[in-house]
């Protein structure tokens, strides 16, 4: 371990209650499909409430792309229990449909027939809908059907004081600490892709005739033999405008300035599209990014926003509140999309990133070496003898992974001791096995299952999703859980109606006010 890491962990060991105050939450996406695994073209079920206002169940890009949102929890077991309950609500509500439990999409209809999420007629709802129309124009609807699992995490406010992060105020220390965490996450997130990547294959149907240099496993399945996560490769959210973004991660101020530039700078191809077609809005503006959330990064600094408040403004005014980890594939073996081992390891990984020394990147605040390591791992991570770059020098993925796991293991030990949870140490052992034996990784196991069962990727996920839905339906909800689910759904529908009835301005005026609410970050 570095001196900084060992010293900080020892300081935290003297404050055993501190890590127990950490909060984590999950956002899990998944497509609604029919029994044959084809994308649903039906509206969001009324039994699930309003996608605009329901606190736990909404939609992402498509009307058929469900998103389940947990509350925040101090313990992983409680977090996974809530996600299991939400999955059971879905399984018991969809009747002849089910939730597709994989990151790469099911068989999709023609591009034009993929339904964009609808949030009602309120200005708030229409803003969300038009933003998604813009995504369709910029990236295509097919790519927007890729799903993932986001892991949100925050340390207690005093955490940053205790580990002595530089800064004048508590807010300065907190933001500087999270930015240091983000830099280290950027350096080491290739490890998460090796350990947890679960999308080495994809249905041929998804690529719409573009093979992208993939190998063919069967008539319906394309793959790369050593890939870990095609979802996070250039098959995912890529376009020329996004490729120009190299945000500075050296400090929050520079990051926000780079984001502000992206949401205010026109991009010529988007200018050619325009904001209207046949008198209807088709995108919110013609800038590199319509809004901040359009930036597809593996990790984001986050801050809860108030009504009509833009994320840039909230972060500039009140600093970083938590981080959102966005690179995790859905664990197809788990109905909740994530295993206990994975969640416990991610906690320890985050603590490592927060306490390990985190030097600034180069003059532009962006690390091309880290981006290259990540890109190489998602496509070739299990290739024997794969070489990455560490500070300009060659190092094998296996050697670097083992070195990192020894350090992350110290963080897991500390978490386990402070929370009296042996699962943290167990999680490290599970990951060490994956490094020793690449065939035990989720990506290798998926390919092995397809070959042994002689099944296409699509048929494999159909069967698996059916089995998981059946188990959840058989388990069912308790009377109180069902009553609460029904009450939340009904209240969300009533809330949407109140919002729609309260609108007093045109949508054009609302969009104008939304853009005017964006203020250039100013820092003392």
UniProtKB/TrEMBL annotation:
Q: Give me any GO biological process, just one.
A: glutathione biosynthetic process
Segments forming a coiled coil: none
Keyword Oxidoreductase in the entry? The reply is: no
Limits of the Glutamate--cysteine ligase domain: 14-373
One GO CC annotation: cytosol
The GO molecular function terms of this record are: ATP binding; glutamate-cysteine ligase activity; metal ion binding
- Which Gene3D superfamilies does the annotation name? 3.30.590.20
**Pathway where this protein functions:** Sulfur metabolism; glutathione biosynthesis; glutathione from L-cysteine and L-glutamate: step 1/2
Reaction it catalyzes: L-cysteine + L-glutamate + ATP = gamma-L-glutamyl-L-cysteine + ADP + phosphate + H(+)
Per UniProt, the keywords (alphabetical) are:
ATP-binding, Glutathione biosynthesis, Ligase, Nucleotide-binding
Pfam families associated with the record: Glu_cys_ligase
- Protein EC: 6.3.2.2
Q: Which family does it belong to?
A: Belongs to the glutamate--cysteine ligase type 1 family. Type 1 subfamily.
Q: What PANTHER family has UniProt attached to this entry?
A: GLUTAMATE--CYSTEINE LIGASE (PTHR38761)
| Protein name per the record | Glutamate--cysteine ligase
- Native source species: Jezberella montanilacus
């Amino acid at each position: 371990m570095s001196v900084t890491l060992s010293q900080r962990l020892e300081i935290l060991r003297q404050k055993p209650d501190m890590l127990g105050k950490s909060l984590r939450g999950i956002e899990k996406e998944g497509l609604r499909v029919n029994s044959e695994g084809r994308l649903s073209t039906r509206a969001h079920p009324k039994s699930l409430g309003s996608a605009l206002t329901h606190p736990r169940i909404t939609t992402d890009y498509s009307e058929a792309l469900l998103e389940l949102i947990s509350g925040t929890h101090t313990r992983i077991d409680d977090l996974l229990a809530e996600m299991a309950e939400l999955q059971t609500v879905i399984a018991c509500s969809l009747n002849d449909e089910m939730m597709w439990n994989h990151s790469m999409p099911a068989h999709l209809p023609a591009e034009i027939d993929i339904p964009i999420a609808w949030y009602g007629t309120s200005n708030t709802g229409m803003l969300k809908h038009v933003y998604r129309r813009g995504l369709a124009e910029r990236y295509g609807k097919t790519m927007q059907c890729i799903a993932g699992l986001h892991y949100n995490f925050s340390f207690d406010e005093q955490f940053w004081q205790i580990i002595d992060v530089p800064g004048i105020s508590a807010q300065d220390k907190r933001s500087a600490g999270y930015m240091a965490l983000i830099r280290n996450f950027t350096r080491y997130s290739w490890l998460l892709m090796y350990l947890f990547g679960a999308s080495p294959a994809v249905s041929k149907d998804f690529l719409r005739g573009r093979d992208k240099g993939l190998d063919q496993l069967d008539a319906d399945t394309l793959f790369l033999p050593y890939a870990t996560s095609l979802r996070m490769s250039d098959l995912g959210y890529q376009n020329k405008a996004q490729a120009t973004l190299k945000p500075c991660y050296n400090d929050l101020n520079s990051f926000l300035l780079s984001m502000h530039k992206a949401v205010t700078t026109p991009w010529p191809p988007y200018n050619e599209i325009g904001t209207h077609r046949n008198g209807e809005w088709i995108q919110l503006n013609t800038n590199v990014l319509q809004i901040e959330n359009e930036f597809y990064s593996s990790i984001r600094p986050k801050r809860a926003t108030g009504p009509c408040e833009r994320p840039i403004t909230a972060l500039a005014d009140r600093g970083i509140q938590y981080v959102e980890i966005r690179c995790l594939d859905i664990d197809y073996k788990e109905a909740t999309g994530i295993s206990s081992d994975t969640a416990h390891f991610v906690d320890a990984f985050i603590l490592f990133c927060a306490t390990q020394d985190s030097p600034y990147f180069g003059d532009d605040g962006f690390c091309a070496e880290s981006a290259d390591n990540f890109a190489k791992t998602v496509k070739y991570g299990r290739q024997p003898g794969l070489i990455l770059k560490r500070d300009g020098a060659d190092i094998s993925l296996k050697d670097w992974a083992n070195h990192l796991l020894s350090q992350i293991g110290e963080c897991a030990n500390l978490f386990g001791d402070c929370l009296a949870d042996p699962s943290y140490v167990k999680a490290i052992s599970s990951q060490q096995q994956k490094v020793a034996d690449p065939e035990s990784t989720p990506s290798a196991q998926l390919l092995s299952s397809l070959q042994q069962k002689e099944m296409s990727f699509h048929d494999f996920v159909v069967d698996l999703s059916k089995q998981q839905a059946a188990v959840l339906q058989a388990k069912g909800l308790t009377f109180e859980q069902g009553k609460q689910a029904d009450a939340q759904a009904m209240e969300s529908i009533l809330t949407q109606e109140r919002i729609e009835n309260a609108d007093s301005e045109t949508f054009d005026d609302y969009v104008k006010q939304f853009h005017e609410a964006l203020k250039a970050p100013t820092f003392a």
